[in-house]
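Reply to dn_fold:

You asked what the input looked like. This is it:
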Amino acid sequence: MPPSYVGAAAVAIGALATLALVNRHLAKKAALNNPPAGRFLELNGVRLHYIERGSGEPLVLLHGNGSMIQDFESSGLIDLAAKNFRVIVFDRPGFGHSDRPRNVVWTPDAQAKLIKDALAQLRISNAVILGHSWGASVAIALGLRFPGLVRGLVLASGYYYPTIRTDVVASAAPSLPLIGDLLSHTVSPLISRATWPMAMAKIFGPKSVPEKFKAFPKEMALRPSQIRAAAAESTMMIPDAFRLRYQYADLKMPVVIIAGAKDGLIDTNTQSVRLHSDISQSSFHRLPGNGHMIQQTATDQLMSAIIEVAGNSARLSAAE
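and this is what came back:
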């Protein structure tokens, strides 16, 4: 190898090593600055972080890909819901302060089993489940696999049917074996920081990012471990939608589907509208002028959807 190549390789390796050290420092700092706000459950080798607030009928909130408990916290939804419900909010595996062991492929089904076991430890046998975005896939998996556990579903801004998604392919690199670890510990956090404003504009648009979202810990989302978890979930979006596309009619509990009319990340017509047609007992709410992050921009409407599904479930139980 010519000396010039050796020198260039040494410089590149040194730059990557420096980036890895910087990202490791920033990740540790982010965790120290944002300590766990709740408690932990130990479930088959997984340390799962959750918060609990309020009293009444149980309500479980499942966040989207790349997010964590603080999304629902900063939105104000937890405080609203805790006035009438016992609210349980999990950091899903790999996000926030929850573990994501690599000996498991964390599909929606695998996460549904984990959430079911967590709720059993909390002595919850029946709950309303709200899932936002990727969390909606976990909520559906709960409804299909453990229907007795699910009193009703609120499915917000979800992805339910396979489509061609070049953005998903592009974002999958940090989940790849070996190269994914290299990327997630070196250049991916740098790229994510640079593109953060553009990403926020896309998921919040057409609305602007609300002031309250400043309470969301951006640096926690930019840790290598969370970037890798988010990439892994991106790779599962299309295959999981393909697998489930004919099963939605099997959901028999009350279902409320809610989505922003101007969602720039997931097309409302080909996803939420179609899902509504496949689930006969569902209701659908299209929110004009809202994008993907309706928990932040339409918090009151999402709370109304929770109350609607809880009421429908109570009427169904009384009729039985």
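The CA atoms of residues 21 and 155 lie 40 Å apart.
Hope that clears it up.
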